[in-house]
Amino acid sequence: MHGLVNRCIELFMRGTYGPGLWEKVTCEVGVDPEGFLTWSTGPDKVTYSIVIASARLLEKSVGEFLEDIGAWLTRQEDIRRLLRFSGSTFEEFVESLRELPGRIRLVIPDFQIPALAVTSPTAGRYHIAASAHQPGLLRVVAGMLRGMADDYGALAIISVMRDCIDIDVALSDYSGKRRFALSHPQVAP
Questions:
Q1: From residue 68, how far is each of 20, 43, 119, 186 by CA, in Å?
Q2: Crossing angle, helix 77-84 and helix 62-74, to 10 degrees?
Q3: Which of 18, 79, 125, 144 has the greatest number of CB atoms lying within 10 Å of its CB?
Q4: DSSP 101-113
């Protein structure tokens, strides 16, 4: 697994639940509690073990844990800003998910995720499927979708199954959008 995935899990656990819980996870799994290098790779089984141990210690299902990571990613301002460049509405953001793997490869060429197929059988309804099964990917994407729906002020029902995500946008303008500008706000010296 790409080191960026393990580093993301580490930062999520440390930032959300504290270093003590992260140390319990690393002790149980048998990895260095000092963390992971972003650009290294490691065996997939290590990542799976970290996810399973973390979810168990938090008394959550693996799916809930992965969705929490996806939602957490949308609260990281630099990531949120990149995601918001994908469209001015939640619907545009959902439509743009088919471009996500290519955009990731532009920044991190060796980080591969399967292509995402986005279809819209009727207005406001979407179906997302991955071209290849990658355990946990759609759960993380579902968490990102939930976070971005809030960010855009949309009310959306998001259902996740093993190999697809279904989205029903009930109201595009349910609540106020979070503020977004193309440039970072400048801080006066």
A1: 19, 23, 25, 30
A2: 80
A3: 144
A4: HHHHHHH-TT---
Amino acid identity at 143: G
Mean per-residue pLDDT over the chain, rounded: 89
Q: What is the pTM of this model?
A: 0.88
Maximum alpha-carbon separation in the chain? 51
pLDDT grade for 2, boundaries at 50, 70 and 90: confident
* Cα distance between residue 185 and residue 134, in whole Å: 37
| Token output for 7 | 């580093």
First to last CA, the chain: 42
